[in-house]
Amino acid sequence: MANPAAGSGNGKLSRLLDYSSTAWAFLVARRNRPFILGLVITDICNLACRHCRVANVHNASMTLEEVRGHLQRQYDRGVRYLYLEGGEPYLWRDGDRRLPDIVRLARRIGYYRVHVYTNGTVPLDESPDFTWVSIDGLGETFRTIRGIPVDHVLDHLRRFKGRGGIVYTVNTLNRGHTGEFLEFMQREFPGRRVMFYLHTPYYGKDELLLSRAQRRETIETLIAHKRAGLPVMNSKAGLRALASGNYFHPTNLWKVIDTTGEYPCCRAIGNPEVCAECGYATCAEIVLARNGRIGPVVGLLGMY
């Protein structure tokens, strides 16, 4: 059942009680169940990024009714936070329905926060609560990884007035440019911060994967950037966890659903090589926050 109308007193009280119950289950009772849903509404994408092999595999999109069914079922099971993913979620279509229609639907059902992951090649809508734009470098670095100039994405980011951050996935091609990128962001986009991921070998180890030494060096460099006041969103604890892999994963704290099925943690579940090399920084932040680490808790409050 959808939440009561937010405008009513009973609705507000119901939401407060629900929120308190969820916070208790996550932070205090530490329930081992999903709180977050990553919904892959389409695998259609307009890019062919060097590090991605999930785009345009099935050329499939969920219908709005399929989306509604997934959202309602997961909400009824206690999930309260939603990530809309792709492919490129801004390319999702069902008749005249577009991405903002899914955001509004999720809110009507009762989801607390709706995040969107996008490549930024389409003008950004301000209806999501938080928008993650993937930018893995500047100039030729970005073009080599993503196949297009970065200027178009930056223009869309300049026009965007909503809340959001940048995802920069570090690999062997761009690892030496993190300082330059952060200084550019601080100068050109004050207030926007950058969450650094590490390239994860979802499709087998490749030339983009950092060696263990490169991984440690990258993490220490990012911690130094953060200490210097550059806009690194990762907590220092989260970065150190990425360097060591010393945090509990895979985890049941979220699930991913696409047109092929449901997966705990990520769609590579059961692949020990992927888990060992996991660079999904938000995973580390959420797991550490749930275990009471202050830095990750503060960072997540900034996003949620």
Automatic annotation (TrEMBL):
<dbReference type="InterPro" id="IPR007197">
    <property type="entry name" value="rSAM"/>
</dbReference>
<dbReference type="GO" id="GO:0051536">
    <property type="term" value="F:iron-sulfur cluster binding"/>
</dbReference>
<feature type="domain" description="Radical SAM core">
    <location>
        <begin position="31"/>
        <end position="231"/>
    </location>
</feature>
<dbReference type="InterPro" id="IPR058240">
    <property type="entry name" value="rSAM_sf"/>
</dbReference>
<keyword id="KW-0949">S-adenosyl-L-methionine</keyword>
<dbReference type="InterPro" id="IPR050377">
    <property type="entry name" value="Radical_SAM_PqqE_MftC-like"/>
</dbReference>
<protein>
    <submittedName>
        <fullName>Radical SAM family protein</fullName>
    </submittedName>
</protein>
<dbReference type="InterPro" id="IPR013785">
    <property type="entry name" value="Aldolase_TIM"/>
</dbReference>
<dbReference type="Pfam" id="PF04055">
    <property type="entry name" value="Radical_SAM"/>
</dbReference>
<dbReference type="GO" id="GO:0003824">
    <property type="term" value="F:catalytic activity"/>
</dbReference>
<keyword id="KW-0411">Iron-sulfur</keyword>
<keyword id="KW-0408">Iron</keyword>
<keyword id="KW-0479">Metal-binding</keyword>
<dbReference type="GO" id="GO:0046872">
    <property type="term" value="F:metal ion binding"/>
</dbReference>
